[in-house]
Amino acid sequence: MHEPTTIRLRNCGKTFADGTLALQPLDLDIGAAETVVLLGPSGCGKTTTLRIIAGLEYPDAGGEVWFGDTCVTTLPIEQRGVGMVFQSYALFPNMTVSENIGYGLRVRRVDASTRCRRSTTCSR
Ligand SMILES: Nc1ncnc2c1ncn2[C@@H]1O[C@H](COP(=O)(O)OP(=O)(O)OP(=O)(O)O)[C@@H](O)[C@H]1O
Ligand SMILES: [Mg+2]
User: Fold this and answer.
1) If 102 and its partner were Cys, which of 15, 88, 111, 115 is the partner (CB 3.0–4.6 Å)?
2) CA 11, 84, 72, 69: dihedral to nearest 10 degrees?
3) Is the pLDDT of residue 13 over 90?
């Protein structure tokens, strides 16, 4: 299992193929096991930032993503060990918020008490 690690974005901007500047170059430091909330108006780049961290998008040239001391900028999503709950689709309507968040851990056969502990919304 992956231990909590720091996440650092350095100069991570995103311009899509159609020319849309989705994200101004961003520096962001997240501590190990720290909870961070991104707040901002619609279209300001919150989802794009999460997708860059997960590896679903790559930042523009010059941007870097670091997990601890490891540069993961060019690492594909399946090698990053990141879970992502999507905004409006790919949620399981029959599951609670906590179960949706913990689903990736269940697929990895992480035991129920560990899943509960690591799903921060868990109220049990
Ligand atoms: N694949 C794409 N191609 C072109 N433009 C895109 C693409 N994905 C997002 N955008 C644009 O990039 C900008 C940032 O989008 P993003 O989804 O990151 O915003 P957001 O902060 O998550 O917004 P919301 O609060 O509505 O979820 C928006 O102008 C959006 O239309
Ligand atoms: Mg969004």
Assistant:
1) 115
2) 90
3) yes
The structural architecture, per CATH, of the domain 7-79 is 3-Layer(aba) Sandwich (3.40)
Is the C-beta atom of 57 inside 6 A of ligand 1? no
Pocket lining: 121 vs ligand 1, CB cutoff 6 Å:
no
d(CA 51, CA 25): 15
Q: Is 25 a residue whose pLDDT tops 90? A: yes
Q: How far apart are CA 47 and CA 38, in angstroms?
A: 9
Give tens-digit pLDDT for 74-89.
999 989 988 887 777 7
pLDDT of residue 39: 96
Domain ranges of the chain: 7-79, 85-124
Question: Which protein residue has the closest C-alpha to ligand 1 atom 11?
Answer: 22
State the distance from the centre of ligand 1 to the C-alpha of 58, rounded, in angstroms: 14
Q: Which pLDDT score, from 0 to 100, does residue 50 have? A: 96
